[in-house]
Amino acid sequence: MPISEQSILDALRVIEDPDFHKDIVSLGFVKDVKASDEAISVRIVLTTPACPVKERFKAQAEEVLSAAFPSVKKIEVIMDAQVTAASRAPLIENLLPQVKITIAVASGKGGVGKSTVAANLATALALTGARVGLLDADIYGPSMGIMLGVKHKPAIDEALKMIVPIEVHGVLVMSLGFLLDPDEPVIWRGPMVMKALEQLLKDVAWPELDYMVVDLPPGTGDAQLTLTQKVPLSGAVIVTTPNEVALIDARKGLAMFQKVNVPVLGIVENMSYFVCPHCQGESDIFSRGGGERAAEQFSVPFLGGIPLDPSVRIAGDDGMPVVLAAPDSTVAQAFRELAGKVAQQASLAAAGKMDQVGD
Q1: pTM score, two decimals?
Q2: Domains detected in the chain
């Protein structure tokens, strides 16, 4: 008796997505089912290429199908992804309709490593195969040129009369710093900041993207408000260090996004701990656990801790994010895990099912 498509789907219903709490067949993840007496092939299409349980799904599917159809000689499970666009709340003007998921990386104060997190998050997402853009919206202190090694100005598309974003490390990047003299201070009032940010959105030839990571200036000012009015933010990632001074401002930033109805995808604790390269002992230089406690207080996901590591500074100064410069390091692994959790939470937000990571 030939193997039917329905029997394959029924077998795969035992695999449940831990975030959506439904089986992968009911969620519509299983596509292109093909079967013969000797081979079965299925394609599992997830909501993000950065899905942290992708390999687990693949192994489970292979095991389930092998057990259900022992006479079949070849089982092929192809993993794929199609990023789901976030639902669009009414806006004054949507300046990025071609972007599926827009993630703001924010902090309540400067000096917590927000831009470093944004650069490594964008690069880590791109490493999964996603189409990623990175907008340096830190108008007063644009730093992506240095962190990503960009030393030239962007080109102009004469036909479109638009700026072409620069592609580097697999990410399309735009920053006000690419257009200004690096030694020239930006001494602008609020309306000029808002206008500059709008131009970085609508006067740049951004293509269709799965993710746009936006590195915001610290605080809760004009740039943040402009972004929430002009772009349908899928969510915000709050960066903090564990010490209480940073956490006070992080809480304010988190509260601001909640007040303007932007989902908070979670809190990441940067410089969480230091691992001695000689004895491998861990030191809590800025205390530890404050980000996790703040996440619990505001009922938002804790996205993890990034260790304090000199390689991050060295890589940033050299224009190469640490996820590329030292891919086997502990800190690079932490950034890759962060990217998976952020993508996971963004998928839940897009589906209107925000939940705690790991629940």
Answers
A1: 0.87
A2: 5-81 (3.30.300.130), 99-350 (3.40.50.300)
